[in-house]
Automatic annotation (TrEMBL):
<dbReference type="InterPro" id="IPR003594">
    <property type="entry name" value="HATPase_dom"/>
</dbReference>
<dbReference type="InterPro" id="IPR004358">
    <property type="entry name" value="Sig_transdc_His_kin-like_C"/>
</dbReference>
<keyword id="KW-0418">Kinase</keyword>
<dbReference type="Pfam" id="PF00512">
    <property type="entry name" value="HisKA"/>
</dbReference>
<keyword id="KW-0902">Two-component regulatory system</keyword>
<dbReference type="Pfam" id="PF02518">
    <property type="entry name" value="HATPase_c"/>
</dbReference>
<keyword id="KW-0547">Nucleotide-binding</keyword>
<keyword id="KW-0067">ATP-binding</keyword>
<protein>
    <recommendedName>
        <fullName>histidine kinase</fullName>
        <ecNumber>2.7.13.3</ecNumber>
    </recommendedName>
</protein>
<dbReference type="GO" id="GO:0005524">
    <property type="term" value="F:ATP binding"/>
</dbReference>
<feature type="region of interest" description="Disordered">
    <location>
        <begin position="1"/>
        <end position="22"/>
    </location>
</feature>
<dbReference type="InterPro" id="IPR036890">
    <property type="entry name" value="HATPase_C_sf"/>
</dbReference>
<keyword id="KW-0808">Transferase</keyword>
<keyword id="KW-0597">Phosphoprotein</keyword>
<dbReference type="InterPro" id="IPR036097">
    <property type="entry name" value="HisK_dim/P_sf"/>
</dbReference>
<dbReference type="InterPro" id="IPR005467">
    <property type="entry name" value="His_kinase_dom"/>
</dbReference>
<dbReference type="InterPro" id="IPR003661">
    <property type="entry name" value="HisK_dim/P_dom"/>
</dbReference>
Length: 395
């Protein structure tokens, strides 16, 4: 009796090379990868990796049925539904008033538009309505799909505020450089002319006027030098421990304000070291903490002035339009009177100060130093609590 091993082919038998003629490429890909045919088709477009990494809510729909083909982690978190559950649903299953946006999608596809935007309220069964800004796109790279991006209004406002800070910093940088050079050259001429004039003056009382010119020229020269400070210092990267930075700044400020001020620590000791310019970060933090202490004059006089240095890890956070898996959050919180409302949106502008006698440069320089580390400083303020939040990418 002739036996054949499992998986073996009887001698003389040729392997079959036929392929089922009714199997489409999409179906075969789905069979091999064990995924839905539409998801396989979406994967073949190559756009999925980019969508997966975005921090905003993203849903990819099949354009004819509006069935959910893909949902990123942010969508799963917001909708409290897994990707598997969402893949069994259409847009109108996800939102009870989904027709509001569904008609927009149909119009987008019919008229061959690529994107449209609108603000709307999306309702969900047994959940709070979602106040959102929706961006609907029909990408050329994936013609069978519609991509819906949902940005919660609060997140939208945060993104817009962050963009303003970044744009403002870039404009400041260019303005400062141009202005500094325009000021420095004539300033040197004014000072030199005043010195020559002083030598020619025989009356001592008249020399007082030339001394005023010389001293004011020197003051302006110092101001210009401070404006250019971030651009003059080379970026020297070393391993930085943020708590060493905090302790250095804490000791300096407490030496300047020995009575009436407490600087409390609230550290996450698990934070790793990172690459950065330690001296620049010390200067940035010192400017913020010193600025806060200066604003606490009344509280210091009463003996209840308080600043908190708080460090935390932030996960999957967007800084300057880039998503970072890990970032460092450093909060500087004080119990002062708060930043005046009329300058709250301009505190990082050069020469803007809410304090009499302030130069208005400390926060501008701090923002410049932090942005050299691909980071950002944000601020929220109300009477009794001002919170400066420094964000720095880790890794």
């Amino acid at each position: 009796m002739k036996t054949v091993r499992a998986g073996a082919r009887p001698k003389g038998e040729t392997p079959s090379t036929s392929v089922p003629t009714d199997a489409s490429a999409d179906a075969l890909l789905a069979q091999v990868t064990s995924v839905d045919p539409w998801e396989a088709k979406l994967m073949a477009t190559g756009i999925l990796p980019g969508l997966e990494a975005l921090p905003t809510v993203l849903l990819v729909l099949e354009k004819h049925t509006l069935r959910v083909v893909f949902a990123n982690p942010a969508a799963e978190a917001l909708l409290a539904l897994s990707r598997r559950s969402l893949s069994q649903m259409t847009w109108n299953d996800v939102f009870t008033n989904g027709d509001v946006l569904a008609s927009t999608m149909v119009e987008l596809i019919a008229n061959h538009f690529q994107t449209t935007r609108l603000d709307l309220v999306l309702e969900r069964t047994a959940q709070e309505p979602l106040h959102t800004h929706a961006i609907v796109a029909a990408p050329e790279a994936a013609p069978d799909f519609v991509i819906v991006e949902l940005i919660e209004n609060e997140q939208k406002l945060k993104n817009e505020r962050e963009e303003r800070i970044i744009d403002q910093a870039l404009m400041n940088k260019q303005l400062i450089r141009n202005l500094a050079h325009e000021i420095k050259n004539p300033l040197g001429g004014i000072r030199g002319a005043a010195q020559l004039l002083e030598f020619e003056l025989e009356q001592r009382e008249l020399r007082e006027y030339t001394q005023v010119i010389i001293k004011e020229s020197d003051r302006l020269q110092t101001l210009v030098d401070r404006l250019l400070e971030p651009h003059r210092h080379p970026y020297i990267a070393t391993d930085v421990n943020i708590h060493e930075v905090c302790e250095r700044v804490r000791s300096v400020v407490l030496a300047e304000f020995p009575q009436g001020l407490s600087i409390e620590r609230d550290y996450d000791v698990s934070l790793p070291d990172f690459r950065g310019d330690k001296e620049q970060l010390i200067q940035a933090l010192l400017n913020i903490v010193r600025n806060g202490a200066e604003a606490l004059r009344e509280q210091i006089a009463r003996g209840d002035a308080r600043i908190v240095l708080r460090t935390r890890v932030a996960r999957k956070i967007t800084i300057a339009k880039r998503l970072h898996k890990l970032a460092l959050e450093l909060h500087v919180i004080d119990n002062g009177p708060g930043i005046p409302a009329d300058i709250r949106d301009r505190i990082f502008y050069p020469l803007v100060s809410g304090r009499e006698g302030g130069s208005g440069l400390g926060l501008t320089l701090a923002q410049s130093f932090v942005q050299r580390h691909d980071g950002l400083i944000e601020c929220e303020s109300r009477p009794g609590r001002t919170d400066f939040r420094i964000l720095l990418p880790l890794g």
